[in-house]
Amino acid sequence: MNAMFRSFASFNYRIWFLGALISNVGGWMQSTAQDWVVLTELTDNDATAMGVTMALQFGPPLVLVSVTGWVADRFDRRRLLMVTQGVLLLLALGVGALLLAGVMTLPLMLLFALAFGVANAFDSPARQAFVSDVVERRYAANAVALNSASFNMARLIGPAVGGLLIVAVGSGWVFFVNAATFLAMIVALMLMRRDELVPRVRSQGAARVADGFRYVSRRPDLIVAFVMVFLVGAFGMNFPIFASTMAIEFGHGADGYGLLSSVLAIGSLTGALLAARRERARLRVVMIAAGGFGVASLVSAAMPSYWTYAAALVFVGFGTVTMLTTANGYVQTNSDPALRGRVLALYMAVIMGSTPIGAPIAGWVADAFGPRAAIVLGGTAGVLASLIGLTWVIWSGRLHRDADRRLGVSLDETRPLDIVTKANPTVAPEEFSDQVAQTTAIRIDDEDEDERMARRGR
User: Fold this and answer.
1) 416 lies in a domain?
2) 441: helix, coil or strand?
3) Average model confidence (pLDDT) for the chain?
4) What are the C-alpha distances in Å from 21 to residues 57, 63, 100, 242?
5) In the beta sheet, which residues pair with residue 413?
């Protein structure tokens, strides 16, 4: 089997991938319908209301991050996902029924958005962690990459289909269609061969997020990565607000909005596939991608027509996913293995927490000054994030003149440091954090690290 699809050798992963793809397509269809309903059916093109809806939907994962992480570690993830998918199915049916009955109001939609957010707060970490239960550890990275490709494939299809369905049959039916897609995931979970699931070790720690915070607070490189992701996430990644208001400005309806979301996914899918090919995630790529996203966003804000704006969105999507995928990989590979899960939990909290802060602001700017001003704000945040990364690289002394090239420069790379010794693995990780804080950059050359360590031991 092709190395890119080696996880498909597992029966459980094949049906999981198919169920997740169908569910993700439905999710993007519903997201498109929900945004369009709030913007055009429940309000008179009120982008602020749309921003509040997004904040309510993405706020619960941030507020409940410690609880949802504990639940995902404590309980059987397969059964947990069946429960969360069932709850999401019922919520979709409820919204669809109220829309078709003509009794949906903005306060009711805000309540449903909050309910979707709470359900997804428990569903998302369990779904991400469940991949390690489905495939062997050696296939885990490949499975995660294929999941990312599946998500972006769904993003390519879902918004366009959702927009067409809104025009053809109405927004209420889109929620019913999405409810049916949840059944695909539930059926996939029921069909899995339970004896082939990989046994997992449950974490015994009770303060994982707090330990991760203490570790990150002593790692300036991770702090810089978090700051860059937060800026872009808060002010630059409000695509539902940008795309829907720009579609209206260009005189297009729900189908035009859905198409813009799908065009954005073309660049996102390309960025995800190229990121998967890189051997190691580097902070410099995060910096460059953030700057590229910012420039592409500023260019898109100046586009005079619908189709030129759509073309610019391809580069916006590419920069966004390249930055997020690389930042995620950098955090994983440059964190101590003993604390990696806790650091990732904090990283996800930063990403999810940026939307409730930035979306209402972006919506207000779009209402007060127009959608182009809101996009300029997001693009400026991307450029600022890149400059913050560059400033830290120069200030930290990691940038040097390259001795082998007359006008070249080189950048020291960071390697993950083990702060729990093998001889005494029971020592609390945070006791060694001060030493991590004092650590300078590690210079990486072409010599194999294993050979270098072996020679030191002689």
Assistant:
1) no
2) coil
3) 77
4) 21, 28, 27, 26
5) 442
Separation between Cα atoms, residue 39 and residue 62, nearest integer Å: 25
- Which residue do the tokens 């959702």 mark? 162
Last residue of a domain, one of 204, 221, 243: 204
Q: How far apart are the first and last CA of the chain?
A: 41
We report the CATH number of the domain holding residue 278 as 1.20.1250.20
Structure-token pair, residue 443? 């210079």
pLDDT band at 423 (very low <50, low <70, confident <90, very high): very low
Residue 442 pairs in a beta bridge with: 413
**For residues 293 and 324, what is the distance between their CA atoms, to the nearest angstrom?**
11
List, for residues 70-108, the tens digit of each pLDDT value: 777 677 888 899 999 999 999 999 999 999 999 999 999
Cα-based angle 437, 442, 443 (whole degrees, multiple of 5): 160
For β-strands 399-401 and 409-411, DSSP reports them as: antiparallel
The model's confidence at residue 327, banded by pLDDT at 50, 70 and 90, is confident
Same structural domain, 159 and 234: no
Query: Is the confidence at residue 20, as pLDDT, over 90?
Result: no
Tokens in use for 414?
């960071």
Same domain, 50 and 164: yes
Q: How many domains, in total, are found in the chain? A: 2
239 and 122 together in one domain:
no
Alpha-carbon radius of gyration of the chain:
23
Name the more confident of 376 and 238. Answer: 376
Q: Are residues 393 and 252 in the same domain?
A: yes
The residue-averaged pLDDT of 165-171 equals 88
Residue of 295, 357, 281 whose CA lies nearest to 323 = 281
SS3 of the chain: helix, strand, coil, percent, to 5: 80, 0, 20
Query: Quick check: 169 pLDDT over 90?
Result: no
Residues 188 and 218 in one domain: no
Per-position DSSP letters for 235-273, written without gaps between them: II--HHHHHHHHHHHTT--HHHHHHHHHHHHHHHHHHHH
**Within a domain: 3:** no
DSSP 6: G
Do the domain assignments include residue 414? Answer: no
**341, two tokens:** 């899960």
Domain membership of residue 103 as a residue range: 11-143+152-204
Which tokens sit at 388? 């913050």
Residues 222 and 88 in one domain: no
Instruction: Indicate whether 1 belongs to any domain.
Output: no
Question: Are 57 and 194 in a shared domain?
Answer: yes
Alpha-carbon torsion 132, 413, 397, 287, what sign? negative
CA distance 180 to 89: 8
| Residue 390 clears pLDDT 80, i.e. is over it | yes
User: Are 316 and 346 within one domain?
Assistant: yes
